[in-house]
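Field log, afternoon session.

UNIT: design team B
ACTIVITY: writing a sequence onto a fixed backbone
BACKBONE:
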């Protein structure tokens, strides 16, 4: 395949893998509760994940250094260990939520027992990771997730209010009392966290090393991140618009992931319904695979074990055992009967607390010319890096109080 084809597939994969169960849930419900008022969070969060994934990918290309190796080197053993534990707890919760969401989708289509479908999902994902290369995993789940663009079509079908949409890009408080304001800020924090989930950066840098990027691939890295993630941000904005224009207008507050497909069914009939459900399967499945691999990458890179999908399982046995164990634990957790949406809420809140500890070492290395040479951050990258580091730190400080005060967004 030519260079153009690789870039094109990389962009499509980045877009198709952008939205997972947490982002879908919070985007739609943010639109239901607050109309377009939280669209600015989607825009800021999308730019933030682009900034830090670009840095992590550039470090991987220039220095062949994964994120968790940098965290241990820059923050010390104890801080890195705490970050590892917190990050892998978030990976476990996120993976469990994705598996539970897929089981709910399959149950909607088949009527089969929920726990049996959890076991089926576990088997499918373990086999997929065991048999497929890293690049094939990206392509299969990323390109399959592109069916989620049916939500963009549905949002256009129902005719968004463009002046209100434009106004939503400017922060504004909701009408109502203090309780509504607290809920508004809780959803802002949750939406930001769901877009800037740390596993995406861990996996992106590790994937660059898996794909043997060099300094000559810095342009490719920048193009894939900027275009692919920007298109993913458009999908997130479309989900929020559907929350406002379709579900909010009908006083429907989606509680289950599959409910979001009602909007595409109303727009395009059965074809829209099945496209949305299949797209959600690949998007959620991709996130489940990525979080399991991310957890294994984190542990192996912290401990100094051999790692990577390019290695045979027997040559990186502890790495393989780590991602299998994370899948099994995630399936066991969700099989207890806990609501996947509740797991999403916990994972989103905990992930935002991890963000500053994950992104600070990336910024420190990317801006250091002694390490990166001529590929170190320029003024714009540094300014954006510091802006987002301060933003996510303030968000992390606010996350737990808002979670408690709003009863996890229930008011």
């Amino acid at each position: 395949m030519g260079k153009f084809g690789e870039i094109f597939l990389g962009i499509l994969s980045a877009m198709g893998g952008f939205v997972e169960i947490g982002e879908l849930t919070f985007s739609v419900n943010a639109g239901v509760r607050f109309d377009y008022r939280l669209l600015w969070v989607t825009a800021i969060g999308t730019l933030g994940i682009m900034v830090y994934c670009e840095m992590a990918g550039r470090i991987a290309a220039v220095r062949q250094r994964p994120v968790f190796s940098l965290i241990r080197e820059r923050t010390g053993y104890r801080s890195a260990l705490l970050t590892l534990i917190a990050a892998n707890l978030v990976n476990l919760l996120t993976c469990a939520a994705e598996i539970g969401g897929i089981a709910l989708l399959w149950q909607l289509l088949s009527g089969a027992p929920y726990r049996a479908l959890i076991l089926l999902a576990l088997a499918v994902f373990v086999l997929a990771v065991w048999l497929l290369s890293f690049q094939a995993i990206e392509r299969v789940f990323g390109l399959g997730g592109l069916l989620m663009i049916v939500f963009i079509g549905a949002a256009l079908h129902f005719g968004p209010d463009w002046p209100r949409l434009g106004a939503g890009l400017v922060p504004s408080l909701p009408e109502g009392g203090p309780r509504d304001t607290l809920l508004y800020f809780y959803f802002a924090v949750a939406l930001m966290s769901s877009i800037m989930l740390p596993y995406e950066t861990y996996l992106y840098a590790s994937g660059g090393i898996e794909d043997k990027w060099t300094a000559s691939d810095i342009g490719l890295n920048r193009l894939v991140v900027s275009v692919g993630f920007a298109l993913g941000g458009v999908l997130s904005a479309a989900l929020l618009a559907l929350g406002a224009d379709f579900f909010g207008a009908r006083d429907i507050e989606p509680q289950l992931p599959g409910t979001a497909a009602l909007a595409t069914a109303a727009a395009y009939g059965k074809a829209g319904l099945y496209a949305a459900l299949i797209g959600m399967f690949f998007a959620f499945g991709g996130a489940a695979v990525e979080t399991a691999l991310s957890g294994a990458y984190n542990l192996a890179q912290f401990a100094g074990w051999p790692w990577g999908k390019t290695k045979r399982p027997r040559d990186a046995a502890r790495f393989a055992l780590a991602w299998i164990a994370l899948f099994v634990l995630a399936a066991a957790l969700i099989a207890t009967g806990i609501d996947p949406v509740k797991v999403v809420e916990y994972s989103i809140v905990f992930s935002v607390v991890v963000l500053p500890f994950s992104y600070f070492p990336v910024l420190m290395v990317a801006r250091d010319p002694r390490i990166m040479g001529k590929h170190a951050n320029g003024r714009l990258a540094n300014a954006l890096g510091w802006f987002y580091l301060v933003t996510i730190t303030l968000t992390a400080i606010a996350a737990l109080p808002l979670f408690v005060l709003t009863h996890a967004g229930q008011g």
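LOG NOTE: DSSP finds 17 helices and no strands in the chain.
NEXT ACTIVITY: expression trials, pending approval
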